Amino acid sequence: MLENEILTENSSMTVQHFSREDVLKDYRLVALSRQCSLLVRKEVFSGRAKFGIYGDGKELCQLALANAMQPGDFISGYYRDQTIVAAVGDMTWREYFSQLYGHPDITFEPHTGGRTMNNHHATRWLDENGKWLDQTKMYNSVAGVSSTAGQMPRAVGIAYASKLYRSIPELKDISQNFTRNGNEVCFATIGDASTSEGMFLECINAAGVLQIPLVMSVWDDGYGISVPSQYQTTKSSISKALAGYQTNEDGAGLEIFTVKAWDYAGLIETYQKAAHLAREFHIPSLIHVEEVTQQQGHSASGSHERYKSPERLQFEIDLDCNLKFREWILENDFATEEELKAIDEESAKTARSCQKEAWTAYTDSIKPQYQNALSLIQQAIEESSNGEEIAKIYESLSKAYYPIHSDSVRAVRRVLHAMRFDSVPSKKALQVWVKEAVDSNFKRFTTHQYSVSDESPLKVEAVEPIYTEDSASLDGREILNRNFDHLLSNDPRIFILGEDVGKIGDVNQTLSGLQDKFGEERVTDTGIREMTIVGQGIGAAMRGLRPIIEIQYLDYIFYPFATLADDLACLHYRTVGGQKAPLVIRTRGHRLEGIWHSGSPMAVLLNGLRGIHLCVPRNMTQAAGMYNTLLNSDDPAIVIECLNGYRLKERLPDNLYDTRVPLGVPEVIKEGTDVTIVTYGSMCRIVMEAAVQLENIGISVEVIDIQTLLPFDISHKIVESIRKTNRVIFADEDMPGGASAYMMQEVLDNQNAYRWLDSKPVCIAAQPHRPAYSSDGDYFSKPNVENVFDAAYAIMHEVNPELFPEIY
Ligand SMILES: Cc1ncc(C[n+]2csc(CCOP(=O)(O)OP(=O)(O)O)c2C)c(N)n1
Ligand SMILES: [Mg+2]
Fold it and tell me: pTM of the full predicted structure?
């Protein structure tokens, strides 16, 4: 259709704008997309696919959106957007079905390698070595998430990156893979019901404030699964509800459009206008697409007859966008009934053949291991003393209707259980088979949680701080300030944004003076909106920039937690290394004052954010070394600075800017022989003070700062200490059962340290409530020097009650 043709705000489209060729091309696409949707449901009912969700009823609006896209643009959509991704050529229909079956091979399913449900799209941005490809030549699908509205926060960041690329001249030389002078548009899509999410509403506000090239579409089919609009949206209409955001004489906001889902010409016109405003002027917009239908209901796991009235079901049929498009084509003489019928029939055939190809490829990929397993089991039946039992396993495996990898693995493992007393050739062969199966299934389902490139932070070598007699003593905050200054000076891709980071240089003045020096685009104040601050960071990091985003206090990480967990943490994993977002999240926590300014919910982060490195420095020099490591590598990470450490004096290393803290390498900060204490962050100072007091009464403590909770002691250094002391305490200020328990499990279980213990291992943690305000609140809520002293002393009392008699 009218590629590259741009309508101005005031022009409108008439039938003369369309050519027969383009109209029929569009019809072919929506007809094929529909047929594919219909097949998805059938494939689920036949048992070949587990779950299916589809884009029927939303073909025309998506086609119009796709027609407004240009190479280099982005689509941050949701599970209905198959027509867009197919229209721009980012997905073939065979790949669509491969994803439906969960084919775990990126040759066939390049978007997510079978790791997500169907209709979760992700363009491969990285080559096999984890290096960026040229996004400006692609139509970029940003890796889908199932959580409704989860696709929105990073869309803000994707669009924000265009703004930065256009306004920071120093980026010109390094931006060729990512931008054409900021002319890209990010199209985000969302269902009507999901606009009820706070996440969506926060994005609307952020987009209006930031003025970025973001075009947000709401596919309004009147339902969120079974719940209709009147329970979802004020005034049952998102465009009416958001009318106050419309750009007008009061100031810039969003352009708000409404258009019907079945109005081909109206949709094309609206998308051309919105894209033009975004691309040329970075004006964001909201397109409320109304009267969208669902031909088959929400998904393959239910039927809409259960909750829709007969009238509404009739509406779904009457306002079917493909049908209306068909009528429009006939009315305007673009084609005859026969021609359209031929296209319809052709579409059904093509959809079926794509489905079959995908199914055959999927089953063919399983067959070799399956058949090999069967023949080895057959051999085992003859050789084993337990042949009868094995024969039953064989029978059930050979009858599997659609055998999958786990069927074979389960069967072979059970056969080996039955052969435990055998010593026959087939047993050896089955053992080898299992080893290979474990390895190949690891590759299919478990790889790529972290970077595999040569920029992985795990490959960064340690550079220790160097001190000389002349090394000055500075406040911790000044050390960070100098280091951030250096980072910003040396890499124009780095920028810092968050609440109060600009004008006042953050609440602890670690950034003071840096906005004046580097400008508002590099050190940027934001609204209080942690979710979209994270989204800004993720999106910009996806486009080659190196954001450091700030969550003002660790306690507020719960606000953006969903985005961190559902999007950032699993991005590299769920795209099998196809996408990355090397975002550095800076926050401060552990210990200061009161319930919302002294939390240390490390276990929450540990358990919820696997995929993001978790750095827990004890002072600002160490934090600086961590930033230097992270900004020279390509994984996402969180750095939790000690809230009570900014005004403490630290010596300034002569080589501050070159320092690198390696990830997963603990540091022994005090040597000792009686008890090992494993700790991190603010607790280091408390443990060190206790260690001095313990030393004074004859107890020698070895103190280990783990430095990073994720990764944790990669080379098993801690067990070496326990081999020497035979006693261990794990101390932190998380709640009981939190990160102290995690450290204990890592060391006793993974490092087998239990073998060397002569005393019961001990965990020191905070009280199981949020910490109370005031110095007394702190003392009685969090572990203190006396707690640490008493814990070590109690261990030594058990060892030698005469030397260490009971105290209390
Ligand atoms: C955060 C979250 N809550 C609930 C769900 C379960 N869920 C999946 S789709 C859906 C309805 C979404 O409706 P809408 O946004 O209107 O999109 P539609 O499916 O109608 O296109 C719900 C509740 C989810 N995926 N994520
Ligand atoms: Mg809906």
Answer: 0.97
